[in-house]
Amino acid sequence: MSSNRSGPVRAGVIGTGFGGAIVLPALHATPEIEVTAVCSARLGRAQAAAAKYGVPTALDDAEQLIGRNDVDLVLVCTPPALHEQLSRAALQAGHHVFSTKPLATTVAAARGLNALAREHDAVTAMDFDNRYVPVRRYMRHLIADGYVGELRCVLATVMWGLATDPTTRLYYWGWTSLREQSGGILGASLGLHQIDLLRYTFGEIEEIGGTATTLIHTKPVHPPDEDEWGQLGPHTPIIGTRAVDAEDMVVLHGRFAAGGVLSLTVSWSIHHGSGVRLETYGSDGTLVLDASGRLFGARSTNGGLEELRVPEAFGEPHLATDHIARFGLLLSDVAATIRGEADETSFATFADGLRAREIAAEVLPSA
Predict the structure, then answer these.
(1) Which of 263, 298, 304, 366 is deepest in the core (most CB within 10 A)?
(2) How many CA atoms lie within 13 A of 118 on its CB side?
(3) Most distant pair of Cα atoms in the chain: their distance
(4) Lowest-pLDDT range, 13-27, 114-128, 136-150, 232-246?
(5) Rounded mean pLDDT of 150-164?
(6) Which of 290, 274, 267, 331 is nearest to 99 (CA)?
(7) How many whole angstroms separate alpha carbon 299 and alpha carbon 287?
(8) Once rounded to an integer, what is the mean pLDDT over residues 244-254?
(9) Which pLDDT value is given to residue 159?
(10) Which pLDDT value is given to residue 203?
C-alpha cells in the first residue's frame, strides 16, 4: 500500500519520551515527512513537543490521533505494553506503522500484528536503527562478498553498565524492571538490537537456546517526574525500592541457516563493561569489530589482523554515534517506500520484529 498523494508523508507520533528525545528531532530534519500531530498521556508534554518542533496538533488521546485523516504514518513510541493495541488500531484505520521495539509483548501478539500488516498491505518499520551504522553495513557487504569464506563461528558480546549508573534511567525502577512489560535487556532493548543486527549481517538464526537471568533484584524508586528522559544523578530523591524480575543478562546460542555457530552475551548490569565486540571466523578469513567501533580483518593467506577503513559509500562516519541522524535515514527510507519510490528496503519491518521476538522467546522463560 503506497501513497498516491503528492508532497510529504504525513505522520502522527504517539509518545513523547523516546519519541520526543529521538524520533521527533529526526522527523523534524526529514523533509520527506511532515508531522501533523503528536500525542502524549500528559497533554502538557504533547503541547511542549508540538511547540518545539512546529507540529500543529497536540493530543492526549491516541485514538484521536489514529482517527485523523491528515495522518499517513503512525509512529508508536510508547512503552511496550501499548505497542500491540496502538499498532493494531493504526493498521485497522488504514495507516502505515512504525513501532519501537519490541513489536509486542508476546510472540502470539507479534504474529497477529505482522499478519494484519500483510492483510492491509501496509508499510511497516521497526526502530532497529543500528542497520544504518556504516561499519555494520560494510561488514554485511564483506560477509556477502565472501571475505571470511564459509562462516564457522560468530562471537558477539555487549557488556554495559547502564543499570549500575545512577545518572541513567535503567538504574531506577520502572517498566524496564518488569518481565511482563517486556522490560528486560532481551525483551525490549539491547538484545533485540543485536539479534536484528546478526540476522541482517549473517542471515537467519536457527537451533536457538540459552539462558536469561536477573543480576540486580531490587532497584531504587524516584518520584514521578514530567520528563522521563530528564537528567538524573547522585542527588535524585529516592522514595523506596521495588523488586525487579526482568532479565538483565542473557547468553544466547544458535546456528545460522547458512552455516556457522553463534554465541551472543548481553548485559547492562555489570561494572566496567567492555562495550560491544563482534568476532567473525570463517574458512578463509576473520573480521573483528572492537568496542571503539573499529573493524579489523585478515584473510587466511595474510598475516595478522589489520584495520579496515569503511568506504564512504557505506555512510558518513558521524552515523556511528549520531542516533538521531540514523533515525532520519531510516524514516526517509520509510517515506520513500510509502510513496512507492524505493525498490527495496534497508530498514527492519514488522516481519523482522516478529522474528526477533520469536528468537528472544526461545530464551525468555515466559515470552
Answers:
(1) 298
(2) 9
(3) 63
(4) 232-246
(5) 96
(6) 331
(7) 9
(8) 96
(9) 96
(10) 97
Domain extent for 151: 130-317+347-360
Average of per-residue pLDDT across 289-300: 95
d(CA 255, CA 262): 6
Judgement on whether residues 139 and 121 belong to the same structural domain of the protein? no
| Whether the predicted pLDDT of 201 surpasses 70 | yes
Cα atoms in the 13 Å half-sphere on the side-chain side of 74: 30
pLDDT digits (tens, 9 = 90+) for 38-55: 999 999 999 999 999 999
The residue to which cell 505494553 is assigned = 81
Residue 315 vs residues 136, 157, 310, 350: alpha-carbon distances, Å: 10, 24, 8, 24
User: How far is Cα 172 from Cα 343, in angstroms, rounded to an integer?
Assistant: 44
Same domain, 155 and 208: yes
Share of the chain above pLDDT 70, in %: 95
Residues 143 and 280 placed together within one structural domain of the fold: yes
Residue 367 counted as domain residue: no
